[in-house]
């Protein structure tokens, strides 16, 4: 319950796509792929535990919380146990990441340091990222750009336009996951003084932003295909997920409060489906070449 398995597609999806893109380009290592996936999942678990611990310590999580149960606030685990589990997850992520740093060099070391700092700074520290209204930006950067471009760079030793475009698409979906979470909590976060993006722009604007976040990735890969950066198979297969995105956008506009909890999981599912379809498109394109 504490590690929140339903959120793990946020880490798995971009790393999967980055690895498959490297394979499509003919440069791929199973060891790098496995280590990157394990490192990403451990970081996501560390983030989840950090949010559970720091939001309890800061008083953001109360009995009025509308989201899934937080084990610290609910008294299911002692704060020290959650803190120690958070530290263990991050230490293990760094330990696995040492191999990735060895392969990718100093740029990956910098990204690793920023990833750990982001995990701790999202809800913790004197200026939490979430309270600055930058949660969605952080999700876009860390679980989009850093994850996809980072693993692609480790695999290939360079970056290119397809990697940045696919990274941006996955980043938008992970920002959408964060936006659902923060829109659900507008009332309780406002009361606690947590100034998330949803609190700052209001529910109406958050709904319009969500629609843009879940639909823009389809436009992005279409433009990438027109520019010759991605094969047509990727665009055609990704389009299968478009009705799911439209349905989610419509549901989000008609839902608020605790009723948004199912949409949180469904947005994570959309992220994974989009990643799988794009990956399958790349695989088919290479087989058909």
From TrEMBL:
Please list the reactions this protein catalyses.
Answer: an all-trans-polyprenyl diphosphate + 1,4-dihydroxy-2-naphthoate + H(+) = a 2-demethylmenaquinol + CO2 + diphosphate
TM ranges are 7-24, 30-50, 85-102, 137-155, 161-180, 208-228, 234-252, 264-288
What subcellular compartments does it reside in? Answer: Cell inner membrane; Membrane
A single GO cellular-component term from the record reads: plasma membrane
Can you cite a GO biological process for this protein?
Answer: vitamin K biosynthetic process
Which NCBIfam families does the entry link to?
A: menA (TIGR00751), PRK06080.1-3 (NF004751)
What's the Enzyme Commission number for this chain? 2.5.1.74
What does the record say about its membrane topology? Multi-pass membrane protein
Report the PROSITE patterns cross-referenced here: PROKAR_LIPOPROTEIN
Give the top-rank taxon of the lineage listed in the UniProt record for this protein.
Bacteria
Q: What are the record keywords, sorted?
A: Cell inner membrane, Cell membrane, Membrane, Menaquinone biosynthesis, Transferase, Transmembrane, Transmembrane helix
Its function? Conversion of 1,4-dihydroxy-2-naphthoate (DHNA) to demethylmenaquinone (DMK).
Q: Report the sequence similarity comment from the record.
A: Belongs to the MenA family. Type 1 subfamily.
Q: Which Pfam families match?
A: UbiA
Please name the pathway. Quinol/quinone metabolism; menaquinone biosynthesis; menaquinol from 1,4-dihydroxy-2-naphthoate: step 1/2
Identify a single GO molecular function assigned to this protein.
Answer: 1,4-dihydroxy-2-naphthoate polyprenyltransferase activity
What name goes with this protein? 1,4-dihydroxy-2-naphthoate octaprenyltransferase
Q: What is the lineage of its organism?
A: Bacteria, Pseudomonadati, Pseudomonadota, Gammaproteobacteria, Alteromonadales
